[in-house]
Amino acid sequence: MSLNKPVAKWNGRRVWIVGASSGIGAALARALIARGARVALSARNAQALALIAAGGAAQQTLLLPLDVTRAEEIAAAFARINSTWSGLDLAVLLAGSHQPVRAWDLDAAQARALVETNLIGVLNASAVLAPAFCRDATGAIAVVSSVAGYRGLPSSLVYGATKAALINFAETLYLDLAPRGIGVFLINPGFVKTPLTDKNEFKMPALISAEDAAEAMIKGFEAGKFEIHFPRRFTFWLKLLRLLPYRIYFPLIHKLTGL
Q: What does the pLDDT look like over 185-233, one tens digit per residue?
């Protein structure tokens, strides 16, 4: 049984991608534009957004550069979407950053910046979207977290904490919004080749392209799933690891990662 209303078609559907300038966000934007969706593109890099928008018809895309840590910019962008398209069907909250951190290198200022982008940015957007969607009794929010939020992992000291928070947030958001007819999707990617994962200094198992990640997300939306996780050949094992007691989990992770 689908936990969300399946997306039957993309042609003409109004989608806002926050974090669309590179990686999965850019790949998702291109894929949805190709399917005929109207796509609003947001990120800090306006030039990159313009290049992506060039792949669609003139009236098909909307450029809305913004910084997710500034709530007023998100509110202004959403207002422009409403005035231009008279509403929004799906918001995909992808904006995020990644910095490998070990405990002995922890810096409070850098940690705070990561939390602001990864977690507070989603809260800023959701605080604008959720009340509006409830008022109109329509719309859906997709929160992009990561399998790094399933359990603690070496070098993911702050990043993993933000993603674990997003998983909990999306679950609770669903409990509140689903009874009101609002869709909530939780996206948990494994390793996807992007400028962010290029920072990793270890071998990333089951690494997939941003284009493959975008297609997996689209299939999940079309199926109406709550959690969309991929690639399953990797995420299946991480879900099993979540069930292990700490006395087994901790030494196993050290052995598997070499960290």
A: 999 999 888 766 656 565 666 789 999 999 999 999 999 999 999 999 9
Domain count across the chain:
1
In a domain, 102, yes or no: yes
pTM above 0.90, yes or no: yes
Does residue 95 contact residue 18 with C-beta atoms inside 8 Å? yes
- Helices marked H in 39-158 — which ranges? 46-53, 71-85, 108-115, 121-136
- What is the spatial distance between Cα 157 and Cα 162, in angstroms, rounded to a whole number? 9
Within a domain: 101? yes
- Cβ within 8 Å of residue 21, ≥6 positions away: 41, 43, 44, 45, 48, 49, 52
How many CB atoms within 10 Å of residue 112?
Answer: 12
Residue 223 lies in a domain: yes
C-alpha pair distances (Å), 75 with each of 4, 126, 127 = 25, 10, 9
